[in-house]
Write a structure and sequence with these properties.
mainly alpha, two-stranded antiparallel sheet, 20 helices, about 500 residues
Length: about 500
């Protein structure tokens, strides 16, 4: 979209990047923090609300699923229709209300409403504008890479710090207070966001592809919810009758409903791709353009993003459940302290991210990150036992933090963004990128969490099997990283040109 005839106001041009970057990074931090801080309070919440570990697992997975399922529409079209800062602030408001509802939840149903749905919807609304605004206010590739690096690092630190901070708050006050703190932070971000003066998108506003929105969200929903059924019915054969209403749809011993849900989800996603392709052929504006899925470098980068978040959130959930149940009821703060080495690893790798990026290609950093991550998970698999000293967790968690930390997270985002020419640096890429990352978080909790709470294995075997599953997905990410170009060259943009819409 050519906006050269309607340039941004001088005030926008003079605004210092520091004033813009802080609220954007803080918003990403609190949303990533929300995805992991619940892990340390699993047992406490389950006892307080009269539910099970599987119930809390479902709550966490639905939170990340809601983000993944709804992230694309705000990124691809709603920011252009409603405005970037408008959507950012409304998302923060919905998130804050959700945090307060969760804090007052009398049962698991209201917790799902406040945390899983309202916080998830709020996050889906506010995160795409974070990356779009970073693209707008940091127009050259060098400054944009730094901005994306700071925001991605804030997300990684938030995910890693969630268990410790959440554990301290839960132990000192209660798990409900942790949600109140989230609401307070969101209030601070809303106040800080007043520094963002965005001229908005110029020209005609697009229409939202309602059908595409429904198909993409429903497809992702059925895939993840299907995987969550494994903890109740098993992976292959139904361990009990699958009943809808008063009708037995699948009898005990039949095929697990996991695959029925997953198949429905995949069919809906296939319908979604057919829908957007037909809209393009008709000259209409789809939810996402099919060209985004035809870029090999971007696709590989998206796979690495998905696998990183799957391993990070899946491992956090597995270790939290393991120490709170199998190893004898560790408290929230003790669980957070056990996970602290991962936080330290992420902090250290984030601090070194800029220096390493100048010395090595993005692809090399992603490969190294996955290798270090695999080594870390293997150490957790080999050294940690039901009766081993808690110090046996330290080397493995630290290496996972270093591997998945700021370096690899930032590099994957940069690979995806730089795979497209400057004119395509808009909301669709950001929305797709964030959706894929959050889908990884949701799948990590759903898959690894379902394995460790499965009744098929007990004690250390459930923990070991869950880690083996995470090693497999880390190797998938490593394979994708090795297929990336050794030195991906960012698209050339010799002229500053208009800022992307």
């Amino acid at each position: 979209m050519d906006t050269s005839a309607d340039p941004a106001p001088p005030r926008h041009r003079r605004q210092p990047p520091q004033g813009v970057l802080l609220p954007l990074a803080l918003a990403q931090f609190i949303c990533s923090y929300a995805a992991s801080n619940m892990n340390v309070a699993i047992s406490t919440i389950a006892t307080d609300l009269g539910t099970t570990v599987s119930g809390v697992q479902t709550t966490i997975a639905v939170f990340t699923l809601t983000m993944a399922a709804l992230m694309i529409p705000p990124g691809s079209k709603l920011t252009d229709i409603l405005g970037r800062t408008y959507l950012f602030r409304r998302g923060l408001l919905v998130y804050g209300v959700g945090a307060l509802v969760a804090a007052a939840a009398p049962g698991i149903g209201i917790l799902i409403l406040g945390y899983s749905l309202l916080e998830g919807i709020g996050t889906a609304l506010l995160i795409p504008p974070v990356y779009i605004l970073a693209t707008v206010f940091f127009p050259d590739l060098t400054s944009r890479a730094r901005a994306f690096g700071a925001i991605s690092a804030a997300g990684g630190i938030g995910a890693a710090a969630g268990p410790l901070v959440g554990g301290i708050i839960t132990t000192a006050i209660s798990w409900r207070a942790a949600f109140v703190v989230q609401a307070l932070v969101v209030g601070i971000v809303i106040l800080q966001s007043r520094k963002i003066v965005d001229p908005g998108v110029q020209g005609p506003k697009p229409r939202l592809d309602i059908v595409g929105t429904i198909l993409s969200a429903a497809g992702l929903f059925f895939v993840v919810v299907g995987i969550l059924q494994a903890s109740t019915y098993g992976w292959f054969r139904a361990g009990q009758d699958f009943v809808v209403g008063n009708t037995v749809v699948i009898p005990e011993g039949g095929i697990s409903p996991v695959w029925v849900f997953v198949l429905i989800g995949l069919l809906l996603l296939a319908w979604f791709f057919r829908h957007i392709r037909s809209m393009e052929r008709a000259g209409k504006e789809p939810l996402l353009h099919t060209r985004l899925f035809k870029n090999r470098t971007s696709n590989l980068g998206l796979i690495t993003q998905n696998m990183q978040w799957l391993v990070l959130l899946g491992l956090s959930f597995v270790v939290s459940v393991y120490v709170q149940t199998v190893r004898g009821g560790y408290s929230a703060i003790e669980t957070g302290l056990i996970l602290t080495p991962a936080t330290i690893g992420i902090l250290l790798s984030s601090m070194a991210a800029g220096r390493l990026a100048r010395r090595r290609s993005q692809a090399t950093l992603i490969r190294a990150g996955f290798i270090v991550t695999v080594v870390g998970v293997l150490l957790l698999l080999l050294w940690v036992r039901e009766t081993s000293n808690v110090l046996t967790f330290v080397p493995g968690l630290f290496l996972v933090g270093v591997g998945v930390g700021g370096v690899m997270l930032t590099s994957s985002v940069n690979v995806v963004q730089s795979a497209f020419p400057e004119e395509d640096q808009g909301g669709e890429i950001s929305g797709l990128s964030r959706s894929v990352s959050n889908l990884g978080s949701s799948l990590g909790v759903a898959i690894a969490g379902t394995v460790i709470v499965s009744t098929l294995v007990e004690g250390n075997m459930g923990y070991a099997l869950a880690l083996v599953v995470l090693v497999f997905f880390a190797l998938v990410g490593l394979a994708a990283a090795f297929m990336l170009p050794a030195s991906p060259v960012p698209p050339r943009n010799p002229e500053p040109g208009p800022e992307p819409a």
